[in-house]
What does this fold into?
Amino acid sequence: MRWVKDSADPSRAQTHALVIGVGDYLHLEGGTEHRARPAPQSLGLGQITSSPVSARLFADWLLAEHSNRRAPLGSIELLLSSGMSEPPNGTPYPAEGTTLQEIRDAFARWSTRCGAR
It folds into this structure.
């Protein structure tokens, strides 16, 4: 899942956040690809639920509590593992998975926003 809050204003200093919470690992036990293509070295790891929840709560905190007069909140891009059904504050979002390429793309967008001022 990808969710974005964007009120970026390149004419002033702002805080831009990229928040990532991945707990859905396809090739580890419990993942959709585990039977067909298990991870060669799983080290006993499996799916986790805490990172998507923590990332979402952090995004909620940014929206509700972040306060910096010199750099107010300009944008949040939140990427969560699939399976998280509701974004912060019930705001609609375009559904996506969270692949390495999607994370790289989100990082590039975040870096561009950060470099605007």
Q: What stands out?
A: The helical segments are 50-65, 100-114. The two ends are 28 Å apart (CA to CA). Strands lie at 2-6, 15-21, 73-80.
